[in-house]
Known about the structure:
heterotrimer; C: D-Maltodextrin-Binding Protein, domain 2; seven-stranded mixed beta sheet
Amino acid sequence: MLKTKEERAFQVFGNIVMMVFALLAIIPIILIITSSLTDNDMLVKYGYTFFPKKWSVYAFTYVFQSGNNVLHCYLNSFFVTAVGTVISLAITTMLAYALARKGLPGRNVMTFLVFFTMLFNGGLVPTYINYTTVFNIKNTYWALLIPSLLMNAFNVLLMKSYFVTSVPDEILEAASIDGASEFKTFYKVALPLAQPIVATIALFNGIAYWNDWMNGYVYLTDSTDLYTIQNLLNRMIQNIQYLSNSTSLSNANSGLASIPSVSVRMSLAVLGILPIIIIYPLIQNNFVKGITLGGVKG
Amino acid sequence: MLSGSTAIQRPKKRGFQKFKKFLPIYLMALPGFLYLFINNYMPLPGLVLAFKSYSARLGIWGSHWAGLENFKYLFASDAWLITRNTILYNIAFIIVNTVLSIFVAIILSELTSPLKKFYQSSILLPFLISSVIVSYLVFAFLSSDNGFINNTILKQLGIKGISWYTSPKYWPFILIFVNAWKSIGYSSIIYLATILGFDRSYYEAATIDGASKMQQITRITLPMLKSTVIMLTLMAVGRIFYSDFGLFYQVPQNSGALLPVTNTIDTYVYRGLLELGNISMSAAAGCYQSIVGFVLVLLANLAVRKIDKDSALF
Amino acid sequence: MKKRIMAILLSVMMVGALFTGCKSSTANTDSGSAAASGSANAAQKAIDDRIANAKKTGKYQTVVMAFLNWTGSPKDLPKVNAAISQYTEKKLGLDVKLQILDAATYKQQMTLMLSSGQQLDIFNGVMIGYAPSVNNGYCLDLEKDKLFQTYGADITNAVGKKFVDNCRVNGALYGLPENKDNANGQDGFSIGKKYLDGIGFNYASMYKNKGDEIIYTDINTINNIFSQLHSKYPDKYVFAPQIATLVQANDFDSLGGDNFGVLLNKAQDFKVADLFASDTYINFCMRNYNWNKAGYISKDALTNDIAPTAQVKAGTAMAYATACKPGIKAQESGLCGQDMILFQTGIDFSPSNAASAMPWCINSNTKDAVAAMQFLNLAYSDPVVSNYLCWGIEGTHYVKTSDGHFDFATGVNGQNSGYYNNVNWEMPNQFIAGIWTGNDLDIWTRMKKFNDSAVTSKAAGFVFDNSAVTTEYTALTNVYNQYEKQLEFGFVNPATGIPEMDAKLKTNGLDKYMTEKQNQLNKWSKTYANK
């Protein structure tokens, strides 16, 4: 394909801009990684640096020896993320498709009911009472999957808007006239056209599940077996913070002094994002394919 | 851009037939609504807490009514400051993030470089870092003793170090920058997906007509993004009284000197209620934020409906 | 459309009826007869009834007790629960389930669990705060139907009437103090031994008695040491400040934990004063301002969240302020990873909220307050239970050493132990549990003496209820947050900074807040003081 001069200029400009954006994003991540591998006393003394005077893997050793099964937490995270993303994607897509159907009686009210949940919620205490006394999900896997994450109004409306603008009604009508059932139309006609947004929402759901620690905070109290990695990391960061700043410790404990609090929080951050850095490029292929597939039409 | 509602043009079917036709659609919406009912609507009566003086002994319903007492603290003498901060930051975030996200999305959609994938995944990374860690990163740059800016950059330039955490005037820019840094990767994906969903034939036709790249962007891409922008902005307007706690509390390291430019409704409430542990007062704050957002969204949506019905939320 | 929305909302509201209040089912106290037949009989009868009931149903009833640690539910908790229960089944006819939560979630979990009607009979008020617990209706009135007198008779003996009375809120008892340090040795400083040796400071001769752990001196000595340290070690910071120092270094009583309206000068009268207009505050800020100007304090101190002990350990700082008490030298030396020398320039002082800082409370929604109180009674008075709570199971988690200490069992350490909570200050009575190796065997005798001999605030036992002035409280807290560190770490000249803050506090209702405090204190003092 022949490229015009303007096209070439655009490509150069685009690459430069994106390189700047990418570096802005990556450099701090590198700083987190080098800090997590720096000796704690050096961090306290000289601050975070790309070129530590003294390297140390003690922070990681500490986390892995802290009596928590880090690998088990990773497994929990993967499980919850995979299952949650799939269910969540299915529910979100179907609801969004319904809301996007023109002529559906009650569509506006339904959209409003969805949107309303974005603004108003009963608050943590009533939600907690609901889930623990009516549904009894405390200290179960359900607690990691269901509360607040399974579907969110933002994603539904985002997807609905995509269906409205990019999946023409005529095509759906045509399929329906050809005798396809509603569900088949959805599955065979609408979904393929909506690939980019489906891939996007899948990614958003995946991130939301992976990053979530709140559900574990609220609904897991009896054992550490169900902790996800983010739950464990957040608890450790906070506990260490409390422990090292607590002035009410009456019992001397020399072990306390050995907690490398500054490097540990960096190593915890690394442990939280590392799997994503490794896995994301692998699934990104599918993701990009999903996005570009949708673009082929027309 | 596509044909308007076809259903309206057809003669009305009888109620039952119509219902039967749409039954599968309703069934598809059912799981979603069931979830909203469980997750959002069942706890909703808990809003009543905002008007009660809560006592665990008496339970939510048994607690005594407090009228609007729980809301009073939101209108103390600093109310103007925290409300102003919250709204101004949100407006700045909406504008800056929208412009930058669209900018990035357009570039990404047009790039043919093999590095495209690398760009796309790296700009998403900041979104994955928790606010606490972001606050340490910012501190790594701005600390007086060891910060990069004071110790490396300003030193090289021969400029005296700045005490960042006691100088409020820089913080609006720092916070807007950090917020953009954290969220652009995420929101640009939305726009990218939308752009890639556009009908390519428009662009092909435009190319044949000899339209330049810039013209294609300004004449085709941007106008077609309009409804997505409107929708996202409407949703952001609904949350205009909310603020990201991590950004305004943790990133400035809770530095007192910065409060005049970093105190928002959420941080004010947090500081005030930290020791009190008053459930009713925090419910009141949430209620207040929701109601204001709700009214603003309804008004904005009404305006949008008047101008462009298809872009309205409902 | 509106109508339909309303209809849906209404149906939702009906579901909301699920949230019926967790009505407190009245504890099955046959109070009248209990009082008549004497407390010992009533207590024994309650135990016998439970055992008989357990024989009938084959299951003992359970008491759930919540407290915080640093790592969440310990691995061996089921074992410890079983061991305690085995003991309490015989003693009290009930099982015990410990609900141990980590510090990160404790406050939120307690709020949720206490509000949701789940079983939680006994909880510790740490982090939630005593006054908020009482105000939010979490706590049972322990003397209702003579519950405390009848079933908790040994508790007063264990901790002392003075400290139990200090937990009264307007005369009513909602919580019980644990045996811990209930005073602080004021204005203490912990300074690295190697740095003192470095400047050739002769601290060894300053101890009053041989074997003392604290040197009693005055602030001039400290100033002198600091200036020598600074000239000898110019690349290190002399002093790492922290927020808690204001209270730990000054003999005012903050009446409820906020600094808005305090009792000055050892709190020996009932006159609520504005701390920020007092010499106490000005002198304190001035001292830090001078130290800051002299370059003793890091420019990052305002935003640095690294604990002073960690800074000393890393070698960036040489000294910090702390509250002194028996055992402090070993504690601080352990935290700093080096020998520390402790100085104290103030008195031993016990403010009004010392005993009620983290009280043991019974959930107001408990199904069986008698069982809860009886277990608390045992936890306060029985060394077997106290050892279980503090150290776990003998042989599995700890062993007794030949010199009478407790130590880790073989192959066990702080990281891999299945039960090592490190929160004994929170346990009802650590004084009757074993003493961990590395601590003096007489530490609790000394602690008791320290507690009893400290100057006690005259308002001891007054708990301020700020629910009538929450608007002022939230506004004042926000204003104070703005200035607190800048003034108290010496970054702002007190001569201009304090009046500015005080003026702003006044416009945000400081006077109203203080008046409320004064009124409550007056009312309290008329009825309960010196009783």
